[in-house]
Structure formats: structure tokens, C-alpha cells
Amino acid sequence: MPFLDVLVTQKEESFITNVYVKPTNTGHCLNGESECPQRYKDSTIGAYIRRALTHCSTWQLMHKEIERSTQVLINNGFSERDINRQTKKIMENWYNPNATKKSQDITIFYRAFFSTAHQEEERII
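^ Helix-turn-helix domain-containing protein, sequence as received from the core. Prediction below:
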């Protein structure tokens, strides 16, 4: 039974979830050859991949959904190189969330007094 964009199927004593695509879906999305920022294109690819990761309950269903999404993206003018790059990046972050986080100390310098240089600038104005 589909609910929102998730297909829930009961199998023996468990439930299996998968991405649900309406039969009327035409497969159109942002065109990969359009004149828009690269981050928009990466976001479109990422949305399809993250949806497969979050909605599919088995590895086989997830793999099948990623293949379907890849074909939809290729049909919309995305390069296979960009799709593979984004897929790899998202899956690495998904399975190793702490590997990409780098802690970096930021030193902030603070002066407890104001310079009087602004008074000179105000006088000129």
C-alpha cells in the first residue's frame, strides 16, 4: 500500500518498504544541461539517492532504485560522471557520517576598546 512516496508491503511477519513512483510519473526533473548553478544539479541527484537510502528497507531494493534513478537522471541530460560522483559522495557520508567531519578550532580576536578613527571620519562627513 503506497503512503506518500513510500510503498509498504507486508511479507510474512515483517514490512518491506520501497520508493513508490506513481504510474503517471513522466520521469521529468531538472535538466542536466540547463543553465543553472552546479549545486542545483548536485541537489537534484542527491535527492534521488537520499530517497533510495531512506525509503528502501533492503539492499536489493535500494540498488534497484538507484539504478532507476540513474536512468531517470541520464534521460534528463545529467552526465554519468556527475551522477556517479554524487552517488559515491552521498553513500560515503551515509555509511561513515563521522569520517567527513573535521573539527577545527577558530580563534577570534577581540579588542576591548574602540578606535577613535571613526570620529575623524565622521568629522569629515
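The beta strands are 2-3, 6-11, 14-19.
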